[in-house]
Automatic annotation (TrEMBL):
Signal peptide: 1-17
The name this protein goes by in its record: Peptidase S8/S53 domain-containing protein
Family from the record: Belongs to the peptidase S8 family.
Organism: Deinococcus roseus
Keyword Ubl conjugation in record: no
Pfam families named among the record's database cross-references: Peptidase_S8
Active site: D173, H229, S414
Length: 477
């Protein structure tokens, strides 16, 4: 009998499972606006006296400030164009408004000086930039307001860059379900479980990645309930968004490829290694080629092995990364150093640990030098935001018997990892040629630094910052 390394789910439990119709329907947040830039080459100017605008434009020109009116606005001010020699220059996305600062502080020095000059001019009541206001893309999904992790990850800003463009994320997990808030974003997956006992679907590998449940009594003598773990992970990445139902995903049009590698009592590394390669579009023996190769692989799975990364894992991961695929893995829920947790301790991966709503390391989150960064895993025993629910991550789920779909808060590095995978998919959507090395570099550079003392044992570079990551991605050549 060959021994197989069994990989368990990094699942920390379900706190408050809610049935669809019974969840408190809080009002959605309204789209907020704030100045995010200015129209280049334009200002709004108001003169003190009405009726002599042409004369004042001429006087300004004599002083070296060439303004030409585009139109008069309703309050008697003028929208004007200025020529470059007037010393005014700003770009649309050039404003980096600091906390406590203003958009004016964020203008470049030359423009500030020119505005000051105009504002001191005797006949001018005021001159100001023509700000660009944009709605933060806030989706209309029913329970978006309970998804506290979304704004805290700066996702609305990321959605101003892209909401996805059909980038495929392969989710190596328990398989897919017919959850209505998820199905629109599926592409063809596969059932990689070669052991029919683990699969529970009467056969070995087949082309139906349906999650038939992973409950049962295992070698440890414990009887596990069906987890529907893959469904919850899928929803975090790409729950059908802006459809007025349920939750929102990190990517609005990101595609999910469910590769079923976890069944009853877990899944084997050999199956997982095959799934990693197939996801990346690499030929796998006795398998049809993947019709929709993925750019991102999400593995909210692992085990505390206490050993170095197994070679089988490392080789499969290396092959996928060599194909330009980014591999995102959970750091594990052992509350220990991730150096003993695989695949988090493999090279070439992005390993994700979990923090609470208050940005301190979650009690279960693995830590240490192998961790790349943190995202929100939450803690369902706390309610720091006083919304009446434990502070987990809200996503799609089913009742234990698989008969009723609903939405539920869960916690774990399993929930933090798909937040990173979802953002990585947005990065690929914006720059399809981005490399895994660039992805990792940008994720680390763009983090929100954790508060002092929040993770003394090491949560990597800090907390995932989606908006900043997309901004840096946009700036790539
Ligand atoms: Ca099967
Ligand atoms: Ca939805
Ligand atoms: Ca709460």
């Amino acid at each position: 009998m060959k021994s197989a390394l069994l990989i368990g789910l990094l699942l920390c439990g379900v706190a408050s499972a809610q049935k669809n119709k019974e969840v408190t329907t809080k009002k959605n947040q309204h789209a907020r606006t704030q100045p995010v830039g200015v129209v280049p080459g334009q200002l709004i100017v108001k003169f003190k006296k009405k009726g002599n605008a042409n004369g004042i434009f001429k006087q300004l020109a004599k002083a070296g400030i060439n303004l030409s009116p585009i139109r008069e606005l309703g309050d008697g001010s003028f929208l004007v164009e200025f020529s470059e020699d007037s010393g005014l220059s700003v770009s649309v996305l050039g404003l980096d408004v600091k906390a406590g600062g203003s958009a004016l502080d964020a203008l470049d020095k030359k423009t500030r000086q020119a505005l000051d000059k105009l504002n001191k001019f005797f006949d001018i009541e005021y001159a100001e930039p023509n700000y660009v206001f944009k709605p933060y893309a806030v989706p209309n999904d029913q329970f978006y307001s309970l998804q506290w992790h979304m704004p805290k990850l700066n996702l609305p800003k990321a959605w101003d860059y892209t909401r996805g463009s059909n980038v495929v994320v392969a989710v190596l997990d328990t398989g897919q379900t017919k959850h209505p808030d998820l199905m629109p974003n599926y592409v063809t997956g596969f059932d990689f479980l070669s052991d029919p006992k683990m699969g529970g679907d009467g056969n070995g590998r087949d082309n139906d990645p349906t999650d038939v449940g992973d409950g049962g009594t295992c070698d440890d003598g414990i009887t596990y309930e069906n987890s529907w773990h893959g469904t919850h992970v899928d929803g975090i990445i790409a729950g059908a968004t802006n459809n007025t139902e349920g939750v929102s995903g990190v990517g609005w049009t990101t595609k999910i490829q469910n590769l079923r590698v976890l069944g009853k009592c877990g899944g084997s590394m050999a199956d997982i290694a095959d799934a990693i390669r197939w996801a990346a579009g690499i030929t796998v023996a006795n398998m049809i080629p993947n019709p929709n190769p993925a750019k991102v692989i999400n593995m909210s799975l692992g085990a505390y092995t206490g050993i170095a990364c197994p070679i089988t894992y490392q080789n499969a991961i290396n092959d996928a990364v060599a194909r330009g695929v980014t591999v995102v893995v959970a750091a594990g829920n052992d509350g220990k150093n991730a150096s003993g947790s695989s695949p988090a301790n493999c090279n070439n991966v992005i390993a994700v640990t979990a923090v609470n709503l208050n940005m301190t390391r979650a009690y279960y989150g693995n830590f240490g030098a192998n961790v790349t960064l943190a995202a929100f895993g939450g803690d369902t025993t706390r309610d720091d935001n006083n919304d009446g629910y434990g502070d987990g991550i809200l996503s799609d789920l089913w009742s234990e018997d698989g008969k009723e779909w609903y939405y539920a808060f869960m916690e774990g590095t399993s929930m933090a990892t798909p937040q990173v995978s979802g953002v990585v998919a947005l990065m690929y959507a914006l720059k399809p040629k981005i490399t895994p090395a660039q992805v990792k570099d940008i994720l680390k550079k763009s983090v929100t630094v954790l508060p002092s003392g929040a993770c003394t044992q090491g949560c990597g570079a800090g907390l995932l910052n989606a908006g900043k990551a997309l901004e840096l991605t946009k700036a790539l050549p």
